[in-house]
Amino acid sequence: MSTKKDKFSSKDKKYMRIALNLAKARNGLTGGNPSVGSVIVRNDKIISIGQTGYNGRPHSEYNAIKNSFEKLNGSKMYVTLEPCNHYGKTPPCTNSIIKSGISEIIYSMDDIDNKVKGKSFKILSKKKINVKKGLLKNEAKYLYASYIKNRNKKLPYVTGKIAVSNNKLIYSKGTKRITDKLTDKFTHYLRLKNDSIMISSKTLNIDNPKLNCRLKGFEKFSPKRIILDRNLEIKMNSYIFKTSKKKNTLIFHNSSNNNKIKILKKKGITLIRSKVDNKRLFNFRIILKKLYTLGTRNLLVEGGDEITKNLIKNRLFDKFYLLRSPKNLLLNKKHQIFTSSSILNTIYKKKSKINSKLVKDNITIYKR
């Protein structure tokens, strides 16, 4: 029941959580636009729902209005983000809301886009629509963390992931899988939610990974492959090279091997020459800025120990998943130890665990 201090009822919160779940379901799949969820209610009955379309259009509010089989006069709309109010590639959602006959709208938070921010409240209120905002605002801010970073800093939201054995190995020759099959599905879920994935040529040549999403029905959402290959050492018999085509693979390099450059370009791979420092390492800040200009909004890094340590030290991960297996790997002639545990715990103070009885592995999320 609503109190004087709380302008929203328990039913309001229930419907907004549904809208947030609709937005979460499509988060990472809406291109440069944020994933928004909408729920339309009348007489405590949901009469329509909407999500932002894949690649960002149509918008959630438009879809919810279009999806309704009933007239919307006197209904209430719950939206996770302030509706757009300007003409872009689509007309303003405020126009659709006004024409629909919706009498009340509640949204979680103002859009951070200056073209929109705070303006919809005034536009809709002038049309005699009852407007409230701020419902479950903190949950919305968490949902839109990547969108907020994209717009404010003009950089991708960077998620790291690494699998480690109980004896702190990330690689042991002859071992194909460190974590169990269900944890592997979680990795594919991360690939689904990120539009690009980055590894080094060293990891590529050792593991020969596919870097695609293999969740049934979502294969087409596999991320763009970003390879850090200073000397263009990518193997021609690797899966990544064989499946490269226009726009699905990008290599950052610092090589003058014209013959290799010609071969890679012929395959459709985008090549970007990038500076290295005195230690022959790439400047990740420059790389991230370049990736943003090329359309990357959510970047997953599945690197080895060297890349991971570099990004941790420079505080470039926004979120990091440590997948720890209970099994030990062999310390043979070719193995790699994860050396970044202590620095990870020092720099990333906020951490929580994903608890699941289905997964044998221990999954810890680190945040700044």
Plain-language structure description:
- The structure is a single chain.
- This protein is 32% helix and 23% strand.
- The protein is built from 13 helices and 16 strands.
- It has helices at residues 10-26, 60-67, 93-100, 119-126, 137-143, 145-153, 181-193, 201-207, 239-242, 258-266, 284-293, 305-313, 341-347; strands at 37-42, 45-51, 76-81, 104-109, 130-133, 157-164, 169-172, 196-200, 224-228, 249-253, 270-273, 298-301, 319-324, 335-337, 350-354, 362-367.
- The mean pLDDT is 94.
Topology readout:
Layout: H1 10-26, E1 37-42, E2 45-51, H2 60-67, E3 76-81, H3 93-100, E4 104-109, H4 119-126, E5 130-133, H5 137-143, H6 145-153, E6 157-164, E7 169-172, H7 181-193, E8 196-200, H8 201-207, E9 224-228, H9 239-242, E10 249-253, H10 258-266, E11 270-273, H11 284-293, E12 298-301, H12 305-313, E13 319-324, E14 335-337, H13 341-347, E15 350-354, E16 362-367
Parallel strand pairs: 3-4, 4-5, 6-12, 6-13, 8-9, 8-12, 9-10, 10-11
Antiparallel strand pairs: 1-2, 1-3, 7-14, 13-16, 15-16
